[in-house]
From TrEMBL:
One of its GO terms (biological process) is protein import. It comes from the Bacteria. Keywords: ATP-binding, Cell inner membrane, Cell membrane, Cytoplasm, Membrane, Nucleotide-binding, Protein transport, Translocase, Translocation, Transport. This is Preprotein translocase subunit SecA.
Amino acid sequence: MPGVVDKVIELFLGSKHEREMKRLAPLVAAINAREPEVQKQSDEQLKARIAAIRQEIQNAIYPLPENAIERRKHVQAVLDQYLVEVFAIVREAARRTLNMRHFDVQLIGGIVLHEGKIAEMKTGEGKTLVATLPVVLNALSGRGVHVVTVNDYLARRDAEWMGTIYKFLGLTVGCIQNQMGDAERQEAYRADITYGTNNEFGFDYLRDNMKFELEAMVQRGHVYAIVDEVDSILIDEARTPLIISGPSELSVDLYYQVDRIIPKLVRGEEIRDKYGNKSTTGDYVVDEKAHTATLTEEGVDKLESWLKLDNMYAPENYHLVHYVENALKAHVLYKRDREYVVRDGQVVIVDEFTGRLMFGRRYSEGLHQAIEAKEGVKVQQESITYATITLQNYFRMYHKLAGMTGTAATEAEEFYKIYGLDVVVIPTHRPMIRQDLDDLIYKTEEGKFRAVAKDIEENYRKGRPVLVGTTSIEKSERLSQLLARRGVPHQVLNAKHHEKEAMIVAQAGRPGAVTVATNMAGRGTDIILGGNLAGLDISQEQWQKDHDLVVS
């Protein structure tokens, strides 16, 4: 009865997270004790000490043990010896360069990340700054550290922003961006610290595996990665395959032919009689939960008649099944402005997790071509897969993996089962005063949207800022129409311009501001109640009034 045992342990020793805090408290005290000594040193002395520690660490870890488990233990043990001093130096470097000093809870977060665990830190607790502590310590091994973010803008912003600390200490920093060539990527990966998105790291690995010469490869191994928004990348998108493909020689004419007959099919449903026996009506049935559409016998008969076939499933006709199934999916499962949009005569996928447009990405195995035929745009040639990997399998290659997020405890079991990662809840620097209300469930989506719009209007009339998260472009535009009818001015972020989004979301805390965003728009931006003074043309006194108004 593990549940009872856990409760007994909690009663006498406190919760798992409380025990973790007690375990880490002496390390935090030791780092704080070092602070006066570190503050006395000049900039040059701090840089020289980091260079000396780097040499000491590299002398101690090489030669590396051949056994992978022993190697990880050995490297971790060496780095642990320098944790207190390096963290104290990084904290001082942050104070001198950015005028930001790590709080004690941020030191705890840094230790947790160094130990290869997931730090759950609430929004606004400074995850970006926390990462600098383990990043510097692990970079001193000379084997490279990867910091993984959710979009190119955040990767570039954080590399430049936190790069001030790294460069102050004599470390090099690189940033992978979507449009870079191989030479620039090689240079970025050779740096002590490399920032980039999960997709860029994954695709670089696939491209490296297709190269014929070692010198042409851009990555130099997978030693240590810190993943920001770890729940989104390692759980939500874990099974999403990254695919490198090229065009095949198959004709696209059949896509147009099949597309013309699919709309004639009639949707049916699966029914059971009183004895539990299943039967179907119509030409096809849809399982929304499994995201599948299946032809009924009646549907198959109709298609065989229209296509002038004796047996659609005969070996000589089986290639047609591929076209029919994709055309059916395209018409009944994939909706415009939900799964994809049409831009400049092209079908562009909408990322289901971020709401962002995925230019250059295509559905595989003929589905994209079927959607192009449905939308009446030019059908591109079908593609052949050359290389593929899931994000889950890619990140499991790292010797040490860590992550940060605001919500990980709910998926703690999954993190441990799949990646062997423990989740540690980091306390907030100040007590939480936010109220989290219970969910409201509505019978219909229409009823839910009306209630949301009414709630937004009431808060807007009171001068309260409102930030609304939606799961798709379609839903954000639907809500926007409802708000417009109610005369509520608002901003809609459809996840197309990261930089613009970040600026708008930064001001989402202004009095009366209403911001409707897809679920990842502006992620990584600190929303300050009253608005971000740096982006506003108002005085400090006026900002303070706005801040007090919102907080009240």
